[in-house]
Amino acid sequence: IEMQVVRTFSVGDYVVFAIMLVASTLIGLFFAIRDRKKRNTEEYLLAGRSMSPYPVGFSLAVSFMSAVTVLGTPVEVYRFGTMFAWVVVGMLFAMIITSEIFIPVFYNMGLTTVYEYLEKRFNRTVRLTATALFMIHTILYGGIVIYAPALALNSVTGLNLWGAVVSTGLVCIFYSCLGGLKGVIWTDALQATIMLVGFVAILIQGSLKLGGFANIWKLCEEGSRIEFWKFDTDPRIRYSVWSVTVGMTVLVCGLYAVNQSQVQRYLSCRSVKEAKIAVFFNWLGLVLLNGLAVMTGIVLYAYYKDCDPLSAGQVKFRDGLLPYMVLEIFKDNPGVPGIFLASIYSGSLSTISTAITALSSVTIHDFLKPHFSWQEKTFTNISIGLIFVYGLLLMLFAYLSSKLGAILQAAISIVGILSGPLFGLFSVGVLFPFANSIGALSGLVVGIGMNVWVFVGSKYYPPPPHFANELPRSCPISSNVTSNYTDVVTTSAAQYMNNTTPIPVPSPARPPVADLYAMSYYYYSAFGFCIVLTVGLIVSLITGGYKQRKEVNPKLIYRFFDHWIFQCIPMRIRRKLWCGVNHEEKTK
């Protein structure tokens, strides 16, 4: 029987990883000592609104690129090809929408949490509903971000699963408690640099092993991995130009325009102009990180083009593919895999620190301050305690994730289901003066309900494999394939094992609505967004929203047609497009 060699991280690798953790802690300690005399909730949770746009931009980018993304993006390219690269175009559209529409409204209102806007625009019920959904979203995703990379590394390298979970969780809690948002932002800048170094090291070593990147590209072209121009308009296609750009635009708007974790960062800038610079600097960082991740996926395919470790049973989880390759290509370079380990956990630390500071902020400002008139120092101390509590809560959910099994994947999808409807809720308020609280809440409930319905339906009636278009991977069936092989591989991937003819798999009779269930998961956010807008506006008009429009505070509405792009429209027409809101009074 052929024995599989299990590679592990060396002492040098763990030393490199430990240095990253220590450096992150020291940054938090530095800001705790430097700012100890001017500590209040605005200084602690918004960095005193004094941050430069460049570290904020780094922080926004690296907190978006979680460890799940660092491990998962190369595998998506490995399985489906380079159409994933179009995400950066969707991200650009999202950054333009965020900076031109939402930043001016939120920043000029002097908000501390983005959900304050909803109470001013609608009522407290809408505000607390959105806050609760954000907290569920953040706790679900935060626990997964801690657990998923630790599980993937444990399955491939034997890295102690709970040692990794606890150590990263405690370090993150420690530097977030000490330094507040300022410490988190500067630590994110360090972690962004580590992530870049990790990707570059893999690309250089992979190119040396495979005869240069030009040869890697050629091998991927032969394996049908290089494709950028799939313009198929069928919404059931997993990856097309339209599904990726449209879906990613709405998904990223849900995260950048109206999510406290990201809004809290650009609100820490000194002005609206600098907040906009931070958002676009963040986009450049995302282009660089996603570009390197896609290139890493190309190297991953070229390295395993002759034998897929998943098909051969050498790797149990998809997210373990990249660590498995890293340990192979750097087996003669002790310490270098530690850079990769540090880059994975840089993504985790950034996302978790973002989550717990945002959760602390919304708890203080949305739940406590409206009801208690304590001193500012008391609220600051509570903020520190809440960061500690939420950090432990995320670690607890990481433990629960280990017991949920297949529900783990469902939780990741449900997180995506929430972002589109929440973006729709804010868009209804910011863009449409005649929207009222009844319509906004109705749209949100129906939008989330429809998204969940489609998601559950897709589990009962999975889309046919040809819509996913998972590309072939080959490997002779190995004696390493055992009955306890647990990776979740789609039917289409299994069919390509050993390059044989696909085996017909019987499927249940598909009702007409199954075509809706088969939509690409990239469209979930856009689907929920459209439902919220449609239902919200119709219900608002039915319940008297058009009569109430003149009572809306002009500061809460964005004058869309007054943007410089529409300056060619005569002023008398633009006034009519204000829908009765007296924006001239606001100008005075």
UniProtKB/TrEMBL annotation:
Q: Which GO molecular function annotation, any one, does this entry have? A: symporter activity
**What GO cellular component is one of the record's annotations?**
plasma membrane
Give TM segment ranges: 14-33, 54-72, 84-107, 128-149, 161-181, 193-217, 237-258, 279-304, 339-359, 379-400, 406-431, 438-456, 521-546
Q: Which GO terms describe its biological process?
A: sodium ion transport
For whether the record's keyword set contains Membrane, the answer is yes
Which controlled-vocabulary keywords does the entry list?
Answer: Cell membrane, Ion transport, Membrane, Sodium, Sodium transport, Transmembrane, Transmembrane helix, Transport
Q: What is its main location?
A: membrane
Which CDD domains does this one have? SLC5sbd_NIS-SMVT (cd11492)
What PANTHER family does the annotation carry?
SODIUM-COUPLED MONOCARBOXYLATE TRANSPORTER, SODIUM_IODIDE COTRANSPORTER-LIKE
- Protein's name according to its UniProt entry: Sodium-coupled monocarboxylate transporter 1
Organism in which the protein naturally occurs: Ciona savignyi (Pacific transparent sea squirt)
